[in-house]
Specification:
Structural class: alpha+beta
Mean pLDDT: 79
Strand order of the largest sheet: 1-2-3-4-5-6-8-7
Order of helices and strands: HEEHHHEEEHEHEE
Largest sheet: 8 strands, mixed
Number of helices: 6
Radius of gyration: 17 Å
């Protein structure tokens, strides 16, 4: 797996499952791990009138646009906090920490400049990045939502936008390596499981990932 590939695991989850009795960690330990993260030096930017998602009183305006290198610290914060808070619902805390190990803003800069990945970011009303997606060729390489922003449609909107852009560049199918956390989300979006594999995380532990695929619907021109 190339250096910049990352499992597109953590789209929004509208329900918060309780940890099982056999879980390695408690809910408190997950929250504690997340609170240890430092908020990055996020640059505020002026956001034009954006995409509005209706969810009753939870409605929020946001925009989706291609990320710049200046977005790397914010992407890093979303990625790391999403893995530790949301990913640890399906993996042990030790596995989640190994998954998040070694991340830094330079990681995403390298992905963009050297690996040719495209990053899309969703920013809220005040210009704060709260979710992102990334892709390369026909592979969705990342889809992560901040724990504070899950359940608001950001993952769905980013996935739809990424699929549209990939199709416009010639992709006929989308391939993903989903985590256990994201499997039901992707299945609800038309993705099918084709297998599983063990992925060696940046921290050295191996975790199970789910290989999934979806055929992109061709536009019908009348």
């Amino acid at each position: 797996m190339p250096a910049c590939r990352m499992p597109p695991a953590l789209a929004e989850q509208t329900k918060h499952p309780q940890p099982s009795s056999s879980s390695y960690h408690s809910a408190d330990s997950r929250s504690e791990a997340w609170r240890e993260l430092a908020l990055p030096d996020v640059k505020f930017r002026k956001i034009p009138a954006g995409h509005s998602m209706g969810d009753g009183e939870m409605s929020r305006k946001f925009t989706i646009q291609i990320a710049s290198l200046d977005d790397a610290p914010a992407i890093h914060h979303v990625h790391e906090s999403s893995i530790l808070e949301l990913g640890s619902r399906s993996y042990t805390l030790e596995e989640a920490r190994s998954w998040a190990a070694g991340l830094s803003p330079d990681f995403y800069i390298r992905c963009i400049k050297e690996e040719g990945e495209t990053f899309l970011v969703a920013a809220g009303e005040y210009g704060i990045v709260c979710a992102f997606a990334s892709y390369h060729g026909d592979e969705l390489t990342g889809l992560y939502v901040s724990p504070n922003s899950e359940g608001r449609g950001l993952g769905s909107a980013l996935l739809q936008r990424a699929e549209q852009e990939m199709q416009s560049r010639g992709a006929e199918r989308v391939q993903i390596k989903a985590s256990r956390s994201g499997r039901k989300f992707y299945e609800s979006k038309g993705y099918e499981r084709v297998g599983t594999h063990q992925w060696k995380t940046r921290g050295g532990l191996e975790i199970e990932m789910i290989d999934m695929t979806k055929a992109l619907r061709k536009e019908i021109h009348q």
